[in-house]
Amino acid sequence: MSDETVLARRYRALLRAYPKAWRAERGDELLGTLLDAAEPDRRRPNLRESVSILAQGTRERFGLRRRRAPGEVWSEALRIGVLVLLGQTVASTLLSILELFTMDAVMPVANIARYGAGVAFGIAAMVALVLGQTVVTTVLTGLWIAAPVMHGELPWQLVTAFAVLAGLSLADRTPGRRRTSAVWLVVVPLVLLLGFGFNQMVGGYFYPASALLYPFALLLALTAGVTVDPRLPIAVACLTVAMMLNATLHIPSLFGGGSINGVSPVELRPQTAVFGAIAVVLLTIGHLRARRLARI
């Protein structure tokens, strides 16, 4: 095998960082440019080239390089926020199943079936959203909330996701599907790990279901999101709203009974104002950043 063939094969492996559609349209052109610029007898890309190709491919895969109108940024950002909300809820449900298996007591079959049904609803909703089926995702999320798989308080992550999806379904009048990259799901396990440690440190001051995702996501939105991608602040605002609702409203789920240990249904706390203010700031930053990038 010639040196040029080996180098081309390794370049092609790096170019897989780009989306498939991009590679089909421009991959051969970029590969030819890279081979023409390479020194004779080279058999592998150097470190600088490799890092650059992977970084640019990742930016293209996340859609960071494409110019968008502010309305398109909002549409994609809200879908990303819904995707992470659904993914976090599925991951939390899986953790609950794991806790059941680690308990010494006998596991009720009804609990296992209930959690399993919740995971099934969540995975189906995420797949539909990634495929651009917004209406289907809205229906599945609504069924997930209404079905007897949720006990205790109303799942405000899902309620927030459902409200956003319903608004998108009504506002989106374009015939084409708006796909959401499944790459954004990589955020879910990261924020779950960081959020678990955060929840242990604060001693349950926040509700675990919402605190698992929020700290890391807020940090991400206020740093890289503000300077790199305007979709991130808007997406994290969805999580902030869910946090605010979790801290403020204590309403039983449809099959959770009439009250929750005597807790008032509405409890205005300092967190309510803080989360509300953060949501407004994030939405404002994302919108202004989107408008600025649209003019560049």
UniProtKB/TrEMBL annotation:
The chain crosses the membrane at residues 119-147, 153-170, 182-199, 205-225, 232-252, 272-290. Keywords: Membrane, Transmembrane, Transmembrane helix. It comes from the Bacteria. This is Integral membrane protein.
